[in-house]
Amino acid sequence: MKLLIHELLNFKFHQLVSKKVLLFFSIVIFSSMLNAQTEVNNNWKNQINPIFQGLDKSKVPNAVLLDYAMEFTNVPAYNGTLTDSTYVDANVLGNIYKTLFMGKVTTSTQYFPKLEDIASNWVTQRQNYNQTDKSTIVLAGMYYKYATLNPNALSTNKITVSNNKYYDKYINGVWQNPYLTKQTVAFASPVNTYNKKNFGVVLPQNLLLSNSANTIQSIQVNFNDGSGYKSVTIGQKVFANYTQNGTYDWTFKTTLTNGSVLYSRTKIKIEQNFTTKKWSKRHQQN
């Protein structure tokens, strides 16, 4: 549930930062955007905090409230159900993470590393796994639980709104829960095009981001190379083998301890004759 003032603030700040944060999570330009992210965080929080100050934040499930966040993407769309509009790449992964990060209602970073640390870890892991034959794609992934205000919370008397501010609702001394618990899952490669047909893929421990990792029973991936789903063991390579160049969907299957299954999908172009430039030369003019 979002009040008109919240919608207006969200729209206002989307306009303010759309140019500043475009491709913010991209590894290549990540470090240059950190100051802009800090500015955006502070500006947004200064505007949104008064609206939510009447709520007991300790009651927010998983300490992340989507309504409290500036939304860089439609996080609920990435709920584990595949659609044609929910392919994930590094930019989408970053936008999901930034939205959840800004939805944190505590200052704890236990489950939310700093953005610069994630970028640094991704670069370091790519270097570590590609020191010799340079034939490993290093993934990043996430599984988070978060809360939203129930759209019916006001009409069902589970929250109070006064002067465009939210307040907890108590009936006979009993707190009324206005929240819904939701989840999101996403995996991505740092590159969209790869110049080998046979290579390893790995998901390091520090690049699986989650506030509910203990509920993940297993992760599998189907590279669409004809070999079906393969188990993904954290920190261990799993191999993709293609017979021809082309664009392929990678489908990730995450099974939770409660038996539910969530899916995420990314796309990669295999082009064996494709030659990449060294990072130091990518932005040089001919």
List keywords for this structure.
286 residues; alpha+beta; 4 helices; 15 strands; elongated; disordered N terminus
Overview in brief:
This protein has 4 helices and 15 strands. It is α+β, with helices and mostly antiparallel strands.
Any overview of this molecule?
The protein is 21% helix and 28% strand. By secondary structure, the chain is of the alpha+beta class. The longest helix is centred in the N-terminal third of the chain and has 19 residues, at 34-52. The protein has a 5-stranded mixed sheet, with no helix packed on it. It has one domain (4-281). It starts with a helix and ends in a 16-residue tail after the last strand. The protein contains 4 helices and 15 strands. Helix 1 runs antiparallel to helix 2. Strand 3 and strand 4 (165-168) form a beta hairpin.
Structural class computed from helices and strand pairing: alpha+beta
Query: Assembly state here?
Result: single chain
User: Which percent band covers the strand fraction?
Assistant: 25-35%
Q: How many distinct beta strands?
A: 15
The residue fraction in helices comes out at: 10-25%
Mean pLDDT: 87
- What low-confidence regions span 5 or more consecutive residues with pLDDT below 50? 2-36, 282-286
Give the secondary structure arrangement, pairings included.
Layout: H1 4-17, H2 34-52, H3 90-102, H4 115-129, E1 136-138, E2 140-149, E3 159-162, E4 165-168, E5 170-171, E6 174-175, E7 179-188, E8 193-194, E9 198-202, E10 208-210, E11 216-222, E12 229-231, E13 238-241, E14 246-256, E15 261-270
Parallel strand pairs: 1-9, 2-10, 8-15
Antiparallel strand pairs: 2-7, 3-4, 5-6, 9-13, 11-12, 11-14, 14-15
